[in-house]
Design brief:
Order of helices and strands: HHEEEEHEEE
Strand content: 25-35%
Helix content: 10-25%
Radius of gyration: 26 Å
Largest sheet: 4 strands, antiparallel
Distance between the termini: 99 Å
Structural class: alpha+beta
Number of strands: 7
Number of helices: 3
CATH topology of the largest domain: Immunoglobulin-like
Length: about 160
């Protein structure tokens, strides 16, 4: 057995506050990452949720969702009390059920997405179009929500 004399590690170049700060940032990142977007928590527990974009122009709010492989009969779109809800179901094909899978990356089953709308919309004029796997929901803003040009008078 060989004895090695203990020597104190050199502390030059070691900034304890910097190291602790980095450690804290890393711990925060690890805990916050899965919960950063509460709206996607349903995906965490219930399977899947297709991606959704919400944009706004002068007259409309427009929600766009990628959901290829669905028929329009399997989609449900509602707006109630300022919340847009889109749900549906992607079914597995019968051929897939009987085949031996070597890799499965596509997701099947029910999904449900609900998002709060940032502006009031005219629910009687909402249009939903499903084409080429993309659902586009156009929601006209109410007159109160639209920007108005105010004329400035002199005097």
């Amino acid at each position: 057995m060989r004895l090695i004399r203990y020597s104190r590690p050199e502390t030059w170049g070691w900034a304890p506050t910097e190291q602790l700060s980095k450690l804290r940032e890393e711990i925060d990142r690890l805990f916050d990452a899965p919960f950063a977007d509460i709206s996607r928590m349903g995906e965490f527990f219930n399977g899947w949720a297709p991606p959704l974009d919400l944009t706004e122009d002068k007259d409309n709010l427009v929600a766009t969702m990628e959901i290829p492989g669905l028929s329009k009969e399997h989609l449900d779109v509602t707006v109630h009390e300022g919340v847009l809800s889109i749900s549906g179901e992607r079914s597995e094909s019968k051929q897939d059920k009987n085949a031996q899978a070597h890799r499965r990356e596509r997701v099947y089953g029910r999904f449900h997405r609900s998002i709060s709308l940032p502006k009031p919309v005219n629910s009687d004029s909402i249009k939903a179009v499903y084409r080429d796997g993309i659902l586009t929901v156009t929601m006209p803003k109410t007159e109160e929500a639209k920007p108005r040009q105010i004329e400035v008078s002199v005097g």
